[in-house]
Each structure stands twice: as C-alpha cells, then as structure tokens.
Amino acid sequence: MEENKDTLLGKFIKTLSYKEQAYDLIKDAILFNKFRIGAIYSQESICNELGISRTPVREALIELQKEGYITILRGRGIEVTPVTEEDAKDILEVRIFYEKNNAFLAAKRIKDEDIKLLKECIEKLESNLTTFDSQLLYRIDHQFHRLVAKATQNNWMYKETELILDNYLRFENKSVYNNSIDGQLVFKEHLAIFNAIKDKDSEKAKKMMEKHLVNSYYRTLKKIWNTEKEELEIR
C-alpha cells in the first residue's frame, strides 16, 4: 500500500506490507476501543473485516501479544488485555520520566521547522475542540507529544515516547476530550508547554510537561476508576 500525504511530521512516502497493515489496523482498533475488553474475536472474523489473508494477520497478532496488547486463546480467538489501575500508574511513571526530559531537551534544541509544526498542531487541536470527536482529538494530542519528542533531535527518545504514548492511550482515551471543560483545560496545558519550548525556557517546559501529565493522570483516575486524587510519588 503506497502512502503519499502530508502529516504533522511532514511529507512521507511509505510502503506497508500486509503484516504491517494488519498490525496497524488491529492496534488502532484496540487503542480506540473498537475491540472491547472481555470480548473474544476470531482470527477469521478479523481477516474478513480487514480483507487481509490469515498469514499476515496471524503474524500481526503474535507481535501484538508479545507487546502485551492481546492474549491469543488457542482454538478460540483473541482477547484484548485489560489495563489495570496499577498498570496505569506504572505507565505514567515512565511517561513522566521521558516526556519531562523531552520538553527540557526540546526547549534547548528546537529548530524553526519544529516550532512551526508544533504551532500548527496546537492550532489544529484548538480548532477541533468543539467537534467532541475524541478519536481525532487524541490523535492530534499525541501528535503534539511526538513532535516534542522529535524536537529533542534524539531518535531514541522519540522511539521510546511512541511506545509509551500508545500504551497510555489504551486507558486515557476513555476519560479526556469527552466534555468541553476537560478539553479546554488540556488545550491550555499544551499551549503552556508549547510557549515554554518556543521561548527556549527548558526548566519551565519541563515543569509544564510534568504538571500536564500528572493532571491528565488524575482526570483519568477519577473517570475510569472513580478514584479520588491521591499523592503521586514522582521519582
């Protein structure tokens, strides 16, 4: 499958194998709750839905199981692996560790092109808040965080951030952008991060990123697990 399009990261042309197509589509269905936790999906039904043959789908499912997204039930199908509150805390701890340092480094190393892309992303997020399209808003939101990671000019930071963001999205997308108040709060937090990075204030960028992620976590705790705000130890 050939792709040639503009993205927030710029133009790219990429050819995906059938396995890669299957992997991306199944993972997307998991991240945005099209595959429900507790339901069992047969490999045959997934093949029919995607229009892709069994071998690449099977290979994609094996990879997704290794990454902890699904459990393959022999003779029955696949089941989405649930994310517990403890999992969420662990993922957040790793996310804060990486992303506050992403913001710090981005403020020191950011290039003009990176600032332009971040500004476009912020504007796109603001202009779509009233759509209440949570899937679209989460894609833009996480694109912002990927762009911050890209602005560090460190490929390893970018790769690790991508992995962390995907795992965080497994539970985060159930909580934010579902109402206008939270959406506006999240936008303002992103804007504060952007302004600090643009102004090359590395300490403030680091502080604003950590504040945003902790706030996001508390919003998630309250809405998914009905847990009151607690003291969170950030190492």
UniProtKB/TrEMBL annotation:
Record's signal peptide: none
Parts of the chain that traverse the membrane: none
Keyword hit for Transcription regulation: yes
SMART domains from the UniProt entry: FCD, HTH_GNTR
Residues in HTH gntR-type domain copies: 16-83
Keyword annotations from UniProtKB, A to Z: DNA-binding, Transcription, Transcription regulation
A Pfam family it matches: GntR
SUPFAM superfamilies with a match to the protein in the record: GntR ligand-binding domain-like, Winged helix' DNA-binding domain
The keyword Transcription is assigned to this record: yes
Domain of life: Bacteria
PROSITE patterns attached to this UniProt entry: HTH_GNTR (PS50949)
PANTHER family reported in the protein's UniProt record: GLUCONATE OPERON TRANSCRIPTIONAL REPRESSOR, TRANSCRIPTIONAL REGULATOR, GNTR FAMILY
Name this polypeptide is given: GntR family transcriptional regulator
